[in-house]
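Progress against Task 2.4 (sequence-to-structure conversion) is shown through the following example record, which the project officer requested during the mid-term review.
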Amino acid sequence: MTVRSHPTHQELILSREYQTGKLQRHGKNFVFLEVLPLNIAVGIKRGYSPIEDIALGVAETIPRLKGFENVIPLVLCAQGSYLDKLETIQTVPPMGKWVNPEERAQNKDRYEKHFSMINHINADIIHNHTTEFPHYFLSHPTTVPIVNTIHVDYKTEQLQAVNHEHIIHVALSEAHRKELQKQGVEVSEVIYNGIDVDSIDCVEKKENYVLSMGRMTPGKGHADAILAARAAGYKIVVAGIVQDKPEDIKYFNEQIKPHIELELDFEKNPQDFEAMVSSDKKVIFGTRLGNKKYELFGRAKAFLFPILWPEPFGLTMVEALATGTPVIAYNRASVPEIIKDREVGYIVNNVDELATSIRYAGKISPHACRTHAHQFSTELMAGNYAKLFSQLLEDRLHDEVHRVTPEQRRGRFPPF
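C-alpha cells generated for the chain above:
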C-alpha cells in the first residue's frame, strides 16, 4: 500500500493514448479516482461500511478485468486509512459514523479540504460516493467527467447542484431511479451493487432461527420481523448497530429493546455464537458481529427484510443469498428486482404473510439462492462501471476532437 497525504501535481500526471477515437487500454494508463465519504478511516477490517465497501470493490476489481489491466485506481479518503491493495490519498481526519446537521455544518471546511485535493490529481474519471461533492463542484468546476453514485437521499439544498453536464448520476436500482427522478435528479444509469460471492461460504444445514440484520432504524422494519418470528414460533436474532441519531435511539429503546431476552457481543466473545444457536431465548440481539457475520447469515433458516422505506438497493439481501439463505421481504422498492418470489425467497406485504412464509422457508434450495446471488457479484458491478468509464472517456475524446460545445453536449446521456 502507498499512502500520499500531500501529492504533487507532477507526481500524479499519467499519460493516456488514444487512437482512431478509441481508448487504448494497453500500454498506457488511465486513472480513476474513488472519492469516499469522511465518516471513517477505511481499513482491511472496516466493520459496518457499505458505501466504502462498494467503492473499494470497484477500485480493486476493475484492474483485474480483461482489457483494463493498465487502469490505475486511486482512493481519496480520510486520514488513518489502510488498504493493502490500493493507493490512497489521505486528506483530513474522519468525522465519525454519523454527524448531526449542526456538526456537519461546523465541519464543512473539512470536506472542502478533502475535495480540494482533487485539483492535484490528474484523474481521467472522478467516481464520487459522497452527497457533498456535487455542491462543492458548483464553486470548483472541472472538465473531468464525474460519475456520481447515489447511495443516500439528497437534501433539498443539495439538489440544485446535482444536475450538471459533467455529472453522470448512477442509481442502485430501477426503483431507486424512480425515487430520484421524483426529486428532480436526472439519472443516466442503473448499476446494481455487488459483493464477492465466491469468498462467502454457502451453508446447506440451517439452524432453527431467523435473522434480521441492519441499522436499528425504523425503516429497516426490525420490529415487524420480531412480531413475525414470534407469530411463526421461531427464535429471531436481530443484529446491527444503533447509531447516535435521536430517532434511532428512540426506536431501539421503545420498539426493539423491550423484546430482547439475550444480548451478545460476537466480536468480544466469539464463543457466544454457539450459545446463541442452542439458547431457548426467543429474541436475541447481536452487536459487533466480528467475523461471524456470514456464519450468522448462512446458518439462519431465513433472512427477514421487512423494509418500510424506499431502500435504494438492499445489500444484505444479496449477502444472505450468497450464503444459501432465502430472503423474505416486503414488496417495496428494490425487492422485486433482487428477489425471485418462491425461487430464492418470498415477497410479502405484511406481518401475517411474513410469519406464514417463515414456515415455508425450508422449501427454498440453498443452491438456488447461491446461484442467484452471482447476478449481483463484484465482477458484474465493476464491469458495468468500467464500461461507463470507458464510454465517458471516448465521448470526451470525441468532444475534444470535434470541439463539441456544452450546449451540444447536454441531453446526450445516457451514454449507452
